[in-house]
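W.,

You were right to be curious about this one. When I first looked at the sequence I had no strong expectations either way, so I just let the prediction run and decided to look at it fresh. Below is the sequence, 330 residues in total, followed by the output.
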Amino acid sequence: MSSELLEQGFVSIGWNAIADIRSIGNDREKLKRALEVAYPDAKAGAYPVWAGILRRFAFEMKEGDVVIAPHRADSTLNFGVITGNYSYYPDAQVHPHRREVRWVQTGVSRGLFPQKALYEIGSAMTLFRVKKNVQVFLDYLDSGTVRPPSAISSDVTSEAVDDWVETEPSAARLDQFTRDFVLKTLLEDLSHEEFEHFTADLLRAMGYQARVTPYSSDGGVDVIAHRDPLGLEPPLIKVQCKHTSAQQSRPDIQRLSGTLAHGELALFVCLGSYSKDAVGYERERQNLRLMTGADIVEHTIANYESLAARWQSRMPLRRVYVVDRSNEGH
């Protein structure tokens, strides 16, 4: 999802070639025919699925319903409550079909939730109803914590599948599953000190020299990195590691910047995301970079074969090739 949705308080769906859904009516067959006219090159099997999504978005979703909007860019989830009826914005080029939302929890790390719950929602490239793991997400909204899977009632985790759940392509789900697995492993299976050593090894896999500072007296700098073998040539990179999924604030980042001498660079690493003010501070500083949990996962996967064997054994991955049949006809 884009920052526009969070800032302006709404959710939207695609199919921009379709006009006001209310003008077509709460009729799946009419919506299907409208889609066939608007998207003549689509596969025949897509039209009834799309029609169901449009109908659900405009007519079935109600005020008070909870919305989960994954943000794949930083591996976070955003929770909101529907506050308005369907609206159509004909002049909007990107988000003409909208529902107003009051966001109640944003930037929540996917690593907090059980793998089954994450697999069900995938990266939410479309609209569907959470069926099997709904209580996991409602519990988080109620208490800010996640119960272990064994505490979830059997009726919620049953394998019953709603007849209008639309799943993503298997390749996309496999990719998201892998990313969730890496993030949860780093968050749950590593200690704070181990995470510092993992960060140093990841930087080495990316082509840097890196060393971990003494754990008890690092002064906020956990790893020192540089390009030359001896660390005598600039720039010197000071790295702070936060082994947490909590969102990091601007003051957190500023403290690291305060340790920099002339010509030094700063890298702040966490397994969650950053506040808007923190991201703004990064834009102000040419010598600072912020690395999110999603960034860590991305670099881990990209450099997996160069990682130390101890980390590969902690998060075993293998390459899987998926045949793309999206261009095959019926």
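Here's what jumped out at me. The chain has twelve helices and nine strands. And, maybe more interesting for your project: Strands lie at 10-13, 66-71, 76-88, 97-109, 209-212, 223-226, 237-242, 265-270, 288-291.

Coffee later to discuss?

I.
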